[in-house]
User: Fold this.
Amino acid sequence: MSTSRRNFLKTGGLSVAALAIGSHKLFALADSDIYVGVQLYSVRDAMDKDPSGTLKQLSDIGYRYVEHANYHNRKFYGYSPADFKKLLEGYNLDMVSGHVVMRPSDYDFTKMDFSDNWKNTVEDAAIAGQKYLVSPWLDDSLRKNMTDFKAYMDVFNKSGELCKKSGMKFGYHNHDFEFSTKIDGRLLYDLIMENTDPALVAQQLDMGNLYNGGAKAIDVATKYPGRFELMHVKDEIPSTTGKGEKYESTILGKGIVGTKEICDIGRKSGGTKYFIIEQESYQGMDPVDTCRQDLAIMKNWGY
Assistant:
């Protein structure tokens, strides 16, 4: 994960998402319920400047499924939920999932209820036709002690119940701190896995981010069989800038992750149906071209 992505999340820039299996089942394999898509953060600058044109480029490349990373003021990339869904359908695209940070302020423990902001987020995700609403961050304040942490894991499960009423599933996406932070001597990621109900909270394994936390994707993928309904498909190389984090993402198969092996584990024993390509660093390449190369590599791997 790039430093800019981390700041984007901390300042609330992340989007909402959710995935509803639409009429277009992109890249169904021999396994008809396995899908390959792209996280739109991969082309974030292009999406900011020209959402429609960028979506057309991705569709022309061959993508049929996208995951969003931009939800503000009840709009996706400046479009209402219904209008964005219509835009996607015009390019033969489905938005099955997306990211929006659920914050401590989104649940009132005195009222034992979610904020209007979070209820609106869930409603808009459903209108957009999504299936998964994924939170990609856990606030610093919730990583300090077991009491606060477990209370918010209960909120995760409650969010799963709320999403279920709209035909969706709540999810969580890791970064790196989950693999370097401990509470009472226990690794944060293990605690998240132990305190979330798999029937209510889907896990999206980001196979690249965790390297900056000192973990290896293959160890995590094999430790928790059947827990990863979604994966962020990435590869990582040592940082080319020498600034920020130790690793940055690159073209699939060019780095240290063993991306194909992790995907195969997800497909065979991880419970993974949605393989979402995300590349945040480009080593001088055009972001749209990296999406083209990454998809071609996935297809060559049998995805």
